[in-house]
C-alpha cells in the first residue's frame, strides 16, 4: 500500500479538519455549561475563550477575517488577529463561537458553535452589517433561484426543480418585522414557513440537509459575517447562495470600503463569499434539527459535530464522547 504523503494542501483540508472539530466542540461545551441561565454575554464569552484557546494551539498561520468585531471593540478573536503557532499554512479564519446567544441563554433549539477555515485570502471580509440572502441546498440546476426574483417566483421555480408543489416547499426566515413582506408573499403562495427567533448560520446550513431539517429555501436578511460562514458550508456540498450587503448609510459604505468593498450594491455569489478550499465545523450547543446539543453525564460529555470539506465535498457527522474531563474544565 502506498505511503500517506502529506502535502501542505492536505494539511489545511485533511488533517486540520479534525482539529476544527475539536475547536468547535470545546466552544460548544463551554457555552453549554451556561445554557438556559439567561446570560447571553457569559455564554458567548465562555465560547470565545474556549475557541481562541484551541485555535492558538493549531499549526497554522491564521488570520481572523470574520470575528467578534473590530480590534477596539473585541479583545479576542478580533478581525485581523493572528492565530496559531505560525508554523503552518496561511489561512483565513471565520468564527461565530456562539451563534444564537439568546437561543443558548433560553435553552431554545438551534444554537451552535461554528467556524470556517479557508486558504488565505479566500473569505470575503464582510463588515458587520446586514446582508440580504437567498440559499438552497445541493441537487438543483444553477440559477434555480435568484436574489432579485420575488419570493413567489423563487418558491415556484424551486418547487418545479424539486418536482413538488409550491405548497410542499418549506422556507426559513428569521422572525423580524423587516420580513413582513416575505412572510406575506410566502403565505399567499401557500409555502410552509419556519420562522426562527435567531440563528441564520444554521438556517442557511439547514438547506444542505433538507431531509433532516425539512428546510428547502432560506430567505431574508441577517448578519453579513454569518452569511460568509454559511456560504462556506453550502459550497462544500454544491448548494447555491446569493447575497447583497445592506449599506444604507455613508458610514456603512465607508466601513465596507475600508474592508475592500468597492461596489456597495454588488450581488455576491457563493464563491465570492467563500472561495478557495474551505472547511466548516459546527457543533450543537442546544438541541436542533441538525445536531444534538451538548449532553453532560457523569464523567462523560457528549457532543455532535458536522464537518464540511470543500475539496472532496465530504460531510462527516461526528458524535463524540469525551472522558478527559480536565480538558473541558471551565477556564
Ligand atoms: C442573524 C442571526 C443571529 O443576528 O444574523 C441576526 O443569525 C441578524 O441581526 O443569531 P438582528 O438580530 O439585528 O436581526 C442574530 O440574531 C444575533 O447575532
Task: Walk me through what this model shows.
The N and C termini lie far apart (45 Å). α1 runs antiparallel to α2 (40-56), α4 crosses α5 and α6 packs parallel to α8 (224-237). It is built from 10 helices and 14 strands. It has 331 residues and is α+β, with helices and mostly antiparallel strands. The protein folds into 2 domains: 8-123 and 278-325, Fructose-1,6-Bisphosphatase, Chain A, domain 1 (2-Layer Sandwich); 130-273, D-Maltodextrin-Binding Protein, domain 2 (3-Layer(aba) Sandwich). The mean pLDDT is 94. Strands 1, 2, 3, 4, 11, 12, 13 and 14 form an 8-stranded mixed beta sheet that branches. It has a 6-stranded mixed beta sheet with strand order 7-6-8-5-9-10, with helices on both faces. Helices cover 32% and strands 26% of the residues. The site of 7-O-phosphono-alpha-L-galacto-hept-2-ulopyranose has 11 residues, from α6 and β8.
* Gross CATH architecture of the largest domain: 2-Layer Sandwich
- Strand fraction band? 25-35%
N-to-C order of helices and strands: HHEEEHEEHEHEHHEHEHEHEEEE
How widely separated are the two ends?
45 Å
